[in-house]
Amino acid sequence: MKLLFLLFLLLICLIQTASGRRRDMRFRQCEKMGGLCKYQKTHGCSILPAECKSRYKHCCRL
Questions:
Q1: What's the alpha-carbon Rg for the chain, to the nearest Å?
Q2: d(Cα 39, Cα 60) in Å, to the nearest integer?
């Protein structure tokens, strides 16, 4: 029974790790497009269609 519980915990950890990698890749799209995540009050930049981790930032190419 303990072995089954440990296998279940291992499965949960693996799922969390895999979903974290996908999330990081989504936020790295901005860097791949040649931009940086900047606060919304940044002026003089072109906004790119990529996501940043914070909702107060946007992907910006200077």
A1: 18
A2: 9
Contact between 26 and 38 under an 8 Å Cβ cutoff? The reply is no
Two structure tokens written together for 8: 């279940």
- pLDDT 10s digits, 15-59: 776 665 555 666 788 888 888 888 876 677 888 888 888 888 888
Question: How far apart, in whole angstroms, are the C-alpha atoms of residue 40 and residue 60?
Answer: 9
Separation between Cα atoms, residue 58 and residue 48, nearest integer Å: 8
- Give 52's contacts (C-beta < 8 A, 6+ positions apart): 27, 30, 37, 58, 59
